[in-house]
Write a structure and sequence with these properties.
Length: 385
């Protein structure tokens, strides 16, 4: 059951997307942990893999959990787990403890991504879903681009990059209290007959299957860039980690700008057309990154890629929810399982170690982006029906 949209109900839900963005700290954190413990790319990239593999395990069960306790309560649970994740690195600092912290972060983020997107449908009209999801990604992107800046400031000015964790813990508490105190009517349950088997049965729909693969790849590209950009800049431009880490912030600034404009544009134009233009622009940006070694040019192409990829996730997600709206919880759980595609970072580390250059990882990400030309054709067919 949808409520009448009001700013008082939308804002705490949207602020939840800010907490969702904390997961992107894994990019800069991976680089700091690699430096602190002198790890290889393959071992260091276990960190983002540890975060995103949990999406494979918990996404579908979370979709079923929402049918029992509701979307709002599920989001509140995710925030509690996220809060715990932020406390763990403050207890001790070794590679095992860091793995535990990011495992908890991955579990909490899995739950919030499964539950928060459908919760948004409770407070906004259906025809505004794509633009509202994009606005949520805009808020998430703000948290994402602030992460490397805060970590760099903490490392250089305060002498400890890990001070980002108590800050994130405090913000998580604020978000939890705000959402908990907001009245959102309990949604109509999708039935008691849903199960893991019935949820995976959605993949028999070739459109749902294609959207699921799309989520896998778009998150893989995003996380892959998050982890690879600093190492790529250090390799190509011979700069320090603190300087190169700002490349991630530039990428997320571009995503922030892209999602903000996307929220406005998608409210007026067909998402499928915007998707096609975005993919084409992203490919041009990747090609530019491969053939540039100048810091200014690389920064421009990183911005182009971030801007182009900003709205891909929300567009794919909105088409998936609209495909079978009566099974939104299950569809959301299945789609968010695709966020496990972030574990591609481990594969990128292996490729980079194997070929001896970060260029190998960038090529893999470019190949992933080519899949979206096929997905764009499916969107056109969907809009035509």
């Amino acid at each position: 059951m949808k409520e009448k949209a009001s700013i008082g109900k939308i804002l705490p839900v949207m602020f939840g997307f800010f907490v969702m963005g904390f997961v992107d700290v894994v990019g800069i954190a991976t680089n700091y942990v690699k430096h602190d413990f002198a790890l290889s790319d393959t071992v260091a990239n276990i960190l983002p893999a540890m975060v995103f593999l949990w999406f494979l395990v918990f996404s579908v069960p979370t979709g079923l959990l929402m049918n029992k306790i509701g979307r709002k309560n599920t989001v509140l649970l995710s925030m509690f787990i996220t809060f715990l994740a932020m406390l763990v690195p403050l207890i001790s600092y070794n590679f095992t403890i860091v793995l535990l912290a990011f495992a908890l972060l991955g579990i909490g983020n899995t739950i919030i991504q499964v539950a928060l997107n459908p919760l948004l449908t409770n407070v906004v009209a259906g025809d505004k879903l794509a633009s509202s999801l994009t606005l949520g990604q805009f808020v998430k992107a703000i948290a994402a681009f602030l992460g490397p800046i805060i970590a760099s400031f903490a490392a250089v000015s305060l002498g400890n990059w890990k001070l980002i964790f108590p800050l994130y813990a405090g913000i998580t508490i604020i978000s939890t209290i705000w959402l908990w105190s907001t009245s959102i009517k309990k949604e109509v349950q999708e039935g008691n007959n849903v199960s893991i088997v019935s949820c995976f049965g959605l993949l028999k729909d070739r459109y749902i299957l294609a959207f699921f693969i799309g989520i896998l790849l778009v998150v893989g590209i995003d996380v892959g860039l998050n982890v690879t950009i600093p190492k790529y800049l250090m390799e190509r431009c011979s700069i320090s980690l603190e300087q190169a880490g700002l490349g991630i912030s530039l990428y997320f600034v571009a995503r922030t700008v892209g999602t903000f404009l996307g929220a406005l544009i998608l409210a007026k134009y067909a998402p499928g057309k915007i998707f096609k233009y975005s993919v084409s622009l992203g490919i041009l940006g990747f090609i530019g990154m491969l053939f540039s070694s100048n810091l200014v040019l690389l920064s421009i192409f990183i911005f182009i890629v971030g801007f182009a990829c900003a709205n891909l996730f929300s567009i794919i997600f909105s088409y998936a929810l609209k495909r079978q709206p009566e099974r939104a919880n299950e569809v959301s759980g299945l789609m968010i399982m695709g966020v496990s595609g972030g574990a591609i970072a481990l594969f990128l580390g292996m490729v980079s170690d194997a070929v001896g250059t970060q260029i190998g990882g960038i090529v893999v990400l470019l190949l992933c982006l080519l899949y979206f030309f096929y997905l764009g054709r499916l969107f056109t067919k969907t809009d035509a029906n």
